Amino acid sequence: MMQAILIGNDTLTRHCGAAWRARGHGLAAVVTRHPDVAAWARAEGLRVEAPGAGLSDRLGDLACDWLLSIANLDLLPRSVLARATCGAVNFHDGPLPRHAGLNAPVWAILEGEAQHGITWHLIEGGVDEGRIIAQRTIDIAGDETALSLNAKCFATALDSFPAVIDALERGLPDLSAQDLAQRSYHARDDRPEAAWLDLTRPAADLARVVRALDHGGYPNPLCMARVRAGGRVLLVGKAQPLPGAGAPGTVLDSDDTTLTVATGKGALRLERITSAEGGATDLTAMPKGCVLPPPSEADRQSLRHLARDEGYWRARLAEMRPVTLPLGAGERGAGEGVTTERRALDLPTDTALGAIATWAARLGGEATHIAYAGPAQEGATGMACPWVPADVTRLEAEIDAADARAPFSRDLFARDPALDPSHRPHLGLRRAGEGLIPGTALTVDLADTPALLYDPARLSPAMADLLALRLEALARGETAAMPEAERRLVVEAWNATDTPYDARPVHRLIAAQAQATPDATALVFEAERLSHAALDARAGRIAHVLRQMGVGPGVLVGLCLPRSADMVATALAIWKAGGAYVPMDPGYPSERLAHYLSDSGARVVVTRSDVARARCHRARRNGCSSTPTRGSRTPPPRPPRAAQAPTIWPT
User: Fold this and answer.
1) How distant, in Å, are the alpha carbons of 20, 27, 188 from that of 44?
2) pLDDT tens profile 187-224
3) Which tens digit of pLDDT belongs to each residue from 72-85?
């Protein structure tokens, strides 16, 4: 039996691990960040470790015969490889030495190849240079996409893995070295310039580019096909060659969801068209006869530049908790060319960033990320996102890190299902460029003279000024949650009214109404109907009894009645007597009612005799007891009307 450490992050990892164990071999550990692989390993009683920094230390003195790297894109340090006494095996989704590196199926389709393949090889020498253990070829269909070819590679890998196990069991007698003269290599940051569709090329070639970048619903690690149209960038998810002719780039037909354009040879119908960030887009500005411009050299060159720090920004976006604002009915989505208002800010340079961080944190609560635009984002055009996320809890360090990195491509939102393009901060900070950061409702502009920029369609001038006053107060060192000007607005201005009102208590207003309209209906409960006079009289009788029992100003009275006309009359009576009522729902357990009595110190309880027997008598008896008797949680059955008169109990 051989022992192995299994490393990988896809379902193929799990299936190959199961096949390895089915042959009677063991797994000393499974190293994965994939939740399904980890769940399978734990269910099998296997040790699970996460990849990344410190892996060798976490493995301790663990050793094995083989290290199996299957669906693993991380370069393994020598200290981890050294754990395997016999060697390390890697699965590669390409026909080595051709298409070494990453995303081999995509590059094979882009280059128009008829066949692809997979390779099992030893990890030795440089990346993907080791001797070959097993290899299989795969035909590339005429309608192949990145998704379908990746699926074929994984299926072929699983089908060929038993042969790999056979070879390891025999001691690898038939290894073949790679002819490195035939080698091609695709690095992490390589991006196909053909992603910018050059409509002077044949339609069939352009359709192949779109298919090569189609990963279905899975994350796309490279980019999406795109065209420029009417000053915008549009992403293309599907393309179909059609008969047709015209000057390259000319729109031959269009509707709400598709564009048919002339190419260097034939026509091409573009489908699944979205905005540069994957959102819905309006194609009505692309009528028949308009012309889509060719991509520029700067467009092509920017692909690799935007890829440089994509992994870093992808992780930051996934963990982002954006500060949002309670925007009103005028709220609208992110867009170019929104109206921007400017409110000057009195922000001393030495306190500005600290004040902005505190201000944003107070606005966001648990949300801590704002949109930041610095020198790297200045003048961002085309596919560069004009902002990056910045956590205000460490704002200065976040700004320094952002300024040292390249921006990321806007189509990242469309390529990663885990990212939502609408999930973005409403609050921004600009230290370069000009204008409101796209998507934000307000942006603090420190690029020139400090100012608060805001979109009046999403935020009123009064609210923008209020927020500006808060920020200025913090910059002056005032730590109060509400500046004095805002406090006056909230406490005084918003509460000021010239409308006259009757300041008498409610029970006196009702008594006055009984004098004015004694016969008018005041209260209806089920079949019972009381006039104003009758309600006031009933409340007066109960109030008279309460006064005799000592109820007056400052005295609390328990009100323990079910919903009824009596409950309303009793509440009025308690007020008439000068007291205040403590609401006690008779449906509550007796121990809770006992707590109400003990905690409030109520001297009297008004209830019904049947409720008193079932609830309040126990509560009265137990109100000062440390071990109250538990009462039934079910309210008592309703007695006949004759038994429903209120009963007044002293406590």
Assistant:
1) 13, 10, 34
2) 999 999 999 999 999 999 999 999 999 999 999 999 99
3) 999 999 999 999 99
Residue 485 burial (C-beta neighbours within 10 Å; 0-12, 13-18, 19+): middle
Reported residue count of the chain is: 651
Three-state SS for 427? strand
Instruction: Confirm if 306 and 409 have CB atoms less than 8 A apart.
Output: yes
Q: Are 4 and 65 in contact (CB under 8 A)?
A: yes
Rounded Cα distance, 31 and 44, in Å? 14
> What does the DSSP assignment read for 230-279?
TTEEEEEEEEEEES--SSTTBEEEE-SS-EEEE-SBSEEEEEEEE-TTS-
What strands lie across the sheet with 48-49, from one edge to the other?
48-49, 26-31, 3-7, 64-69, 84-92, 115-122, 132-139
Contact 165, 15 (CB under 8 A): no
The separation between CA 480 and the C-alpha centre of its own chain, rounded to angstroms, equals 31
What does DSSP say about strands 100-101 and 84-92: parallel, antiparallel, or unpaired? unpaired
Q: How confident is the model at residue 649 (pLDDT cuts 50, 70, 90)?
A: low
**Do strands 185-186 and 132-139 pair parallel, antiparallel, or not at all (unpaired)?**
unpaired
Residue 35 has phi, psi (to 5 degrees) of -60, -35
> In a 3-state reduction of DSSP, which class is residue 120?
strand
What is d(CA 136, CA 121) in angstroms, rounded to the nearest whole number? 12
Query: For 92-149, how does the pLDDT look when each residue is reduced to its tens digit (9 = 90+)?
Result: 999 999 999 999 999 999 999 999 999 999 999 999 999 999 999 999 999 999 999 9
Helix/strand/coil percentages in the chain, nearest 5: 35, 20, 45
H helix or E strand, kind and range, residue 209: helix 203-212
At a CB cut-off of 8 Å and minimum separation 6, what does 265 contact? 201, 202, 203, 204
CA distance 567 to 562: 7
Question: What is the CA angle 469-472-476, rounded to 5?
Answer: 135
Which of helix, strand or coil describes residue 179?
coil
In this structure, the number of other CB atoms found within 10 A of the CB of residue 331 comes to 14
b vs e for 20-53, b when ≥16 Cβ sit within 10 Å of the residue's Cβ?
beeeebebbbbbbebeebbebbeeeebeebebee
Structure tokens at 554: 């400052």
Mind spelling out the 3-state secondary structure of 388-414?
A: EEEEHHHHHHHHHHHHCCCCCECCHHH
Residue 648 has pLDDT above 80, yes or no: no
Pairing state between β 528-531 and 521-525? antiparallel
Q: SS3 of 503, please?
A: coil
Q: pTM for this structure?
A: 0.74
Tokens 């070829």 label which residue? 137
Q: What are phi and psi of 404, to 5 degrees?
A: -90, -5
Residue located via tokens 């693993």: 72
Q: Which helix (H) or strand (E) holds 375?
A: none
Q: What single string gives the DSSP state of each residue in 607-630? A: EEHHHIIIIIHHHHHHTT-SSPPP
- Are 40 and 99 spatial neighbours (Cβ–Cβ below 8 Å)? no
Contact 313, 408 (CB under 8 A): yes
Q: Residue 67 has what DSSP assignment?
A: E
Write out the two tokens for 368.
Answer: 């801590």
Cα separation, 120 vs 131, in Å, equals: 9
